[in-house]
Structures are given as C-alpha cells and as structure tokens.
C-alpha cells in the first residue's frame, strides 16, 4: 500500500514554504497521472540533511512526550493502553469505547476523561469535500491514514474555561456553530491537545493547522459513527502542550491544572480556522486544474529550498541547467529576495533574468509613492553581479 501523502505534514509544509509548487508535487506523488501532464519522475526521498534534522527532532519529541505522559498517567480518569514494556500503546476510538465514556460522563458530569494516544479513522467523505469528483478521476487522488492526537479531553466540566455563552463546535461539514445551551445537557464536548517539544512562544501557524486538521477530521468521524447527538468537537479550547521543565510538569496534579497553570497553549481558533480554510482552498484549486504541466504551478524559490527534495526540478524551471550562463537564470533566483520583490522585478519592470537585473536595475526611477523595492535596488544589483561574476561584491561607500 502506498505511503500516505495527504497528512498534517503536507498541510504544514505549505505554511512553512509558502510554495504551491511543493504542495502540488506532494499531492501528486502517489497518483501522478491524475495531477501531472506530462508525468515526469520526481524525487521520492527528502535530502539527507532534512532526514538527519527530522530524525533528531523526532527523537527529542518522543523523549519529551514520554515525560509528559508519565505525569499525565498519574492523574485520575486517564484512559490509555500499555504495551508489554509498560510504554503507552495506541488505542482505538471506536463506537463501543466512546459510548462507554458517554455513559460515564452523563452519570458524572464533573468528570473529565483524558484519552492518551487514541487513534481514529478519517471517513472518505472528508476527502470528497476537498477533491471534487471528475469524469477523468474516479478514484481519490491522494492516500491518507488514520489520525492519532496525543491528548483527547472528554467532558463538559471544561466549559468553565470558556467565557459564558462561548461554546462553539466544528460541525461535520467543517463550519463553526454555536452550541445551543440546551444541547449541552445531552452532548459532550471533545478537546484536543498535541504534545510538542517546542517553546511556548514558538507555537505558531503550522501547529494551528495541525490541530484544526484533527478537529475537522474528528468531527466527520463522530458523525460517521452516528454519535453527533452525544458528542461535539469544541472549536475554541484546543491547542499545544509545549515544552516545560520537569519541575513545571511535576506541578500537574489535575486536568484543571493544564489550564490554571497555563501548561497548555490554547490556539487562536478563528485564525487557525482561517489558515486551515486557506490551505484547503489552494488544494481544491490545484485539484481543479489537474492534470496540468508542473511548470504551470507557481513556485517560491527561497533560502529553505535547500531542504526541499524538488529543488533540482525547480532549478530547471528557473533556467539553472548544466553549463547555463547565470545571466539567463530567472530573477527569482536572487538570494534572500522575497517572492513579491522577485515578482515585481519580472511583472512590473520586465526584468526577467539575472542579466536583466544587472543591466537595467539602475534605470528604475524612484516614484513619489514609496515602494518596498526601492530600498532594495542597490542590493539587488549587487546580488546579480555576484551571481554573474561568481565573486563577492561589496557595497560602495555610502551604500550601506
Ligand atoms: S525547491 Fe523551493 S520552490 Fe521548489 S518546490 Fe521546493 S520549496 Fe518550492
């Protein structure tokens, strides 16, 4: 079976690179005929340097997860399975287990159940909302796998951490809805946290996206299991359990402490939803136009490209071929130059290549309305010169 290519990592990679071309490569990897026309071989393995970096981060992340689980397992009402070595094992969020939790929580509404490493399937209907059916594509154009958030909290006692009248849910169609107060007597809220080896102030957009992918898929799965009258997925009390010292983790004595001691970072849900919907819209657009030539999809050549497995393919698009003159390379190759500045050079000033920039950048007249490109003109010329003559170029006196 093909390795899943529609994952939270795929969504996050767009946020990290801001590159539609990369997203397109990743989406089309498993079923290229549905995406690329013409089909051409693309690298399947990330570069060594990324594999090494990822390996280190995964190891550190696992170590930290273990520390957090050790503290969480001491709390009341934790639900988890152990493997033969006593480590936390995966559990399944199935109809029987979740119905049992419902019975417990309706009898004891002050209780919150904490489910660790519970796995659930994503119904295919979730992907049907993203990938519209086409006459030329009768199968789903991507492969996906189950989801397993680190921490699921079940119970309505947690609503005390929301302002009054602030109960919002993610519906199975992906929209956000206010939960009427009468429904709170019969439906139980679910909250998701993921443990990350990351400083609290580094929690950002890519984490927002990951959490919303969990929320949106779980909402569809709850509906698919016929449990939407018993449960709802909270839109506004989810987030990341970031890095804390062992001392801080040891202060955790109850589920309430997660919030009272600010051990979790509650993500800004409106922004998270906006980011999620934006990425999904881009994916829908890419699918709509597929299959198409890879060159048709916009790229964002930037300093992070050195970690991208598709760099050699993109270099060809940008005119960097064996033995080619650097004068003919695209202006997008200018190092440390934002996508918008490169686009302005090409579209507004007709400076398509590095040679065009070197020869003509001085002719750009500074208008009375300030533009960010004006302050960059001297450095753009220096960068073009350095690339063409393959040497270090220093600023002239007074140019710094
Ligand atoms: S190398 Fe850069 S421009 Fe090309 S796909 Fe990767 S991120 Fe995008």
Description:
With 400 residues, this protein is an alpha/beta fold. The protein has 2 domains: 8-288, no CATH class; 318-389, no CATH class. The protein contains 13 helices and 13 strands. It has helices at 8-17, 20-28, 48-72, 95-107, 124-128, 205-224, 246-250, 255-260, 269-288, 311-317, 339-347, 354-360, 372-389; strands spanning 78-79, 81-82, 88-89, 91-92, 113-116, 118-119, 151-154, 168-170, 176-178, 188-195, 231-234, 239-241, 265-266. The strands form 3 sheets. Strands 1, 5, 7, 8, 9, 10, 11, 12 and 13 form a 9-stranded mixed sheet that branches. It has a two-stranded antiparallel ribbon with strand order 2-3. A two-stranded parallel ribbon has the order 4-6. The longest helix has 25 residues, at 48-72. The protein is elongated and about 80 Å long. The chain starts with 7 loop residues before the first helix and ends in an 11-residue tail after the last helix. Bound molecules: iron/sulfur cluster (SF4). Residues 17, 19, 21-22, 299-301, 305, 308, 310-311, 314 line the site of iron/sulfur cluster (SF4).
């Amino acid at each position: 079976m093909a390795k899943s290519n529609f994952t939270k990592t795929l969504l996050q990679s767009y946020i990290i690179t801001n590159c539609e071309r990369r997203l397109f490569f990743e989406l089309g990897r498993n079923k290229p005929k549905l995406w690329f026309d013409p089909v051409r071989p693309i690298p399947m393995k990330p570069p060594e340097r990324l594999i090494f970096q990822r390996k280190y981060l995964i190891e550190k992340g696992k170590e930290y997860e273990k520390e957090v689980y050790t503290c969480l397992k001491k709390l009341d009402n934790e639900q988890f399975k152990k493997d033969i070595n006593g480590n936390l094992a995966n559990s399944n969020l199935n109809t029987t287990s979740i119905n049992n939790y419902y019975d417990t929580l309706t009898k004891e509404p002050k209780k919150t159940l904490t489910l660790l490493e519970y796995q659930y399937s994503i119904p295919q209907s979730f992907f049907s909302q993203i990938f519209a059916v086409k006459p030329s594509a009768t199968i789903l154009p991507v492969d996906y796998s189950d989801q397993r958030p680190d921490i699921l909290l079940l119970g309505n006692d947690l609503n005390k951490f929301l302002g009054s009248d602030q109960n919002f849910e993610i519906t199975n169609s992906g929209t956000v809805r206010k939960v009427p107060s009468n429904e709170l007597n019969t439906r139980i809220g679910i909250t998701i946290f993921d443990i990350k080896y990351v400083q609290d102030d580094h929690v950002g957009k890519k984490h927002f996206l990951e959490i919303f992918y969990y929320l949106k898929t779980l909402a569809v799965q709850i509906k698919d299991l016929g449990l939407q009258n018993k449960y709802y997925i909270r839109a506004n009390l989810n987030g990341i359990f970031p890095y804390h010292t062992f001392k801080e983790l040891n202060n955790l004595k109850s589920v309430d402490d997660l919030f009272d001691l600010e051990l979790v970072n509650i993500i800004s849900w409106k922004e998270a939803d906006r980011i999620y919907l934006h990425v999904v819209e881009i994916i829908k657009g890419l699918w709509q136009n597929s299959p198409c030539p890879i060159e048709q999809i916009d790229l964002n050549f930037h300093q992070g490209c050195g970690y991208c497995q598709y760099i050699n393919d993109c270099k060809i698009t940008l005119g960097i071929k064996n033995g080619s003159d650097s004068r003919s390379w695209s202006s997008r190759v200018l190092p440390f130059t934002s996508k918008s500045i490169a686009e302005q050079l090409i579209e507004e000033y007709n400076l398509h290549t590095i040679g065009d920039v070197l020869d003509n950048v001085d002719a750009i007249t500074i208008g009375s309305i300030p533009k960010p490109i004006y302050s960059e003109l001297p450095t753009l010329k220096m960068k073009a010169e350095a690339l063409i003559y393959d040497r270090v170029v220093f600023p002239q006196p007074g140019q710094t």
